Amino acid sequence: MSRINRQWRLTRRPEGAIQDGDLELVETPLSDDVPDGHVLIRTVYLSLDPTNRIWMSDRDQYLPPVEVGAVMRGSSIGVVEVSRDARLAPGTLVAPGLGGWQDYDIVLGKQVRPLPAIPGVPATAYLSALGSTGLTAYFGMLEIGAPKEGETVVVSAAAGAVGSVASQLAKLKGARVIGIAGGRDKCRWLTDELGLDGAIDYKHDDVGAALDRLCPNGIDVNFENVGGPIMDAVLARMNNFARMPLCGLISGYNADGPTPGPKDFSLLLMRRIRVQGFIVLDYLSRAGPAQRELAQWVGEGKIKYKVHVEQGLENAVSALRRLFTGEHDGKLLVQVSPES
Amino acid sequence: MSRINRQWRLTRRPEGAIQDGDLELVETPLSDDVPDGHVLIRTVYLSLDPTNRIWMSDRDQYLPPVEVGAVMRGSSIGVVEVSRDARLAPGTLVAPGLGGWQDYDIVLGKQVRPLPAIPGVPATAYLSALGSTGLTAYFGMLEIGAPKEGETVVVSAAAGAVGSVASQLAKLKGARVIGIAGGRDKCRWLTDELGLDGAIDYKHDDVGAALDRLCPNGIDVNFENVGGPIMDAVLARMNNFARMPLCGLISGYNADGPTPGPKDFSLLLMRRIRVQGFIVLDYLSRAGPAQRELAQWVGEGKIKYKVHVEQGLENAVSALRRLFTGEHDGKLLVQVSPES
Question: Cβ neighbours of residue B284 under 8 Å, at least 6 residues apart?
Fold first, then answer.
């Protein structure tokens, strides 16, 4: 038996926002002939993340860029359909690593991680609050930001997949938390549903004036996802000995040139601020305990999350574009095939 | 009896490089009538530091700016001439804090620190290798940079008072150390006298190409004193998990606008770099043990330093200008009066 495997391949490096034709959907036959020790996985959910855009470019980055002509890289979860690894029975829900934007993939069984079956936890949680976005928030906020009770924390892109978890983790530690997001609805979700102490709609509010009002004691932790003028506005209000986990700089991912640093770098010096770039891949050896702690908080309702599921692999590119315009609501996934 | 006290007062905030007339030398009478618990100190050496220029401006900074009309702030050492504090006998050599650019000062005895008398250690060492510049190098390099044996360390302004000590401390820890300085003589001093593994003359060399040649394994620690294009060249070659103690940004101190951050801030993210601004004042409670360790290394000849002494309080302003052009050789001091 053979299957038709649809693959999104990178045809050229996007300039600026992703355009039609930067990727193409190609159909290739895939044989059932799986090598010993390998498994054939059917993709169920594909995770769309800001870092996908980085991987498409040849800028300096933490993994090699996706090569032109290659299948687009991406996180996913899938179901084992054919197994030649005794530990992985067909039907098992697994995280296959960075397999990519395709219907099927054949990978070494030992590179594949079966997902724990936790009652009440849907599969999509493993690509959101309990997945790499949740873990990014966990390590970035708790280990680098390390807010203390009563400190003030600002999170940019606070309604995003990482930012929303990071914001709630800071609340769990007793901090005053202010989120920055685009749009009234997102801001309302942050304050009314997630319990943040304030939210700033950067599309309509004067961010600096709002920070002055909402952070009367200055800012101790800036969980930075965005860069640019929003970062500058936060930085200008950071306290002595403040921490800035640098998680993302999405404002620059579609730009051709490099993403510039703060307008006033001397603030880091004068206020003894620590900026620490980080990537969740560095923490994978400690993912297990963190994931269990997150799962408990999700189960107790202390961490809420939203998942926005688009249907169909064919819509992956158009869905990814929404990440950069904010026209999505929660962690953005593409459902490629049914869960069972 | 009364003395004539000459004081450099700030008459206006400099724009760009310090101009004649930005400060004026004023003579005022000073009475011997010292209040109880106070001491009258005769200034012996005045320390000239890049941070003096920061204090003259009203930019955001770590201490309040010097007010227009006030005596210019500065580190110094002096001799107690009149004492109404039983612990401080006349003739004692002391560090009076940030008393300033004047012949005499009357201060509370408990704010004054007598200098330890270490055989073979000249008084000027307490304003250089064993003073706040040495301590800045000590905490910035050893605690924030924390180079490991075999790592590569780059120090900008490496022939300066802080940079030269920082470079030697990294050598003591077994690192490969490359210094960046302005001029062939300074570079020769770094390699031939201080034992650095390489030196780059930014006034004549292509800094990027030289870094490529001298740092074949990339850069693990960047002890940053300068900012601007030199910082960008170093940053572009920093390794994953590198550290950047941010000690100074002298390239921007004479500028009117803010000092911009790195041209490519995303490098911090992609390479998980830590930037930590610091000020030596935060470490004063731990200065004693650090100073003793530095004194031992100085005594053993493991840390060498140079002092450049200009004579006469009246020359303080012209001397300070040299800090920004590099026309000095070692820690820049002004001798205001004889040591004894």
Answer: none
Q: Tell me the nearest-neighbour CA distance from B291 into chain A, angstroms.
A: 22
Rounded Cα gap, residues A48 and A43, in angstroms? 14
Q: Does one domain contain both B136 and B272? A: yes
In the block, which residue shows the tokens 């790592």? B151
Tens of pLDDT, residue by residue over B117-170, are: 888 789 999 999 999 999 999 999 999 999 999 999 999 999 999 999 999 999
Q: How many domains does chain A have?
A: 2
Residues B124 and B143 in one domain: no
pLDDT of residue A6: 97
Identify the three-state secondary structure at position B44: strand
CA-based nearest residue in chain B for residue A273: B277
Q: Which among B266, B279, B281 is the top mutation candidate for probing chain A, defined by the most A β-carbons within 10 Å of its own β-carbon? A: B266
pTM: 0.91
pLDDT at B1: 67
* CB contact at 8 A, A290 and A283: yes
Neighbours of B35 (CB within 10 A): 9
Q: Are residues A90 and A228 in the same domain?
A: no
Closest C-alpha to A74, from A334, A338, A340: A334
For tokens 């860029």, name the residue.
Answer: A65
Measured between beta carbons, which residues in chain B are less than 8 angstroms from residue A267? Answer: 60
Q: Which residues pair with B78 in a beta bridge?
A: B43, B94
Both structure tokens of A38: 């390998």
| Spatial CA neighbour of B154 closest among B106, B203, B226, B98 | B226
Tell me if residue B259 falls in helix, strand or coil: coil
In terms of domains, do A124 and A6 share one? yes
For residue A246, the chain B residues in CB contact (below 8 A) are 268-269
Please return the burial class of A340, using the count of CB atoms within 10 Å of its CB with bins 0-12, 13-18 and 19+.
Answer: exposed
Residue A23 near residue A11, CB atoms below 8 Å: yes
Which CATH number goes with the domain that contains A52? 3.90.180.10
pLDDT (tens digit, 9 = 90+) per residue, A270-289?
999 999 999 999 998 998 89
- As a whole number, mean pLDDT of residues A103-132 equals 91
Whether residue A284 lies within 8 A of chain B, CB to CB, comes out as no
Which of A260, A271, A274 shows the shortest C-beta gap to B263?
A: A260
What is the domain-level CATH number for residue A189?
3.40.50.720
Residues A143 and A159 in one domain: yes
Q: What is the ipTM of this complex?
A: 0.90
Both tokens of B220, joined, read 């693990």
- Structural domain containing residue B13: 2-128+306-335
Which residue in A164, A168, A41, A57 sits closest to A114, CA to CA?
Answer: A41
Residues B166, B67 within the same domain? no
Q: Quick check: B165 and B129 in contact, CB under 8 A?
A: yes
Using H for helix, E for strand and C for coil, what is the string for chain B? CEEEEEEEEECCCCCCCCCCCCEEEEEEEEECCCCCCEEEEEEEEEECCHHHHHHHCCCCCCCCCCCCCCECCCCEEEEEEEECCCCCCCCCEEECCCCCCECEEEEEHHHCEECCCCCCCCHHHHHCCCCHHHHHHHHHHHHHHCCCCCCEEEECCCCCHHHHHHHHHHHHCCCEEEEEECCHHHHHHHHHHCCCCEEEECCCCCHHHHHHHHCCCCEEEEEECCCHHHHHHHHCCEEEEEEEEECCCHHHCCCCCCCCCCCCCHHHHHCCCEEEECCHHHHHHHHHHHHHHHHHHHHCCCCCCCEEEEECHHHHHHHHHHHHHCCCCCEEEEECCCCC
Q: Give per-residue pLDDT as tens, B231-247.
A: 999 999 999 999 999 99
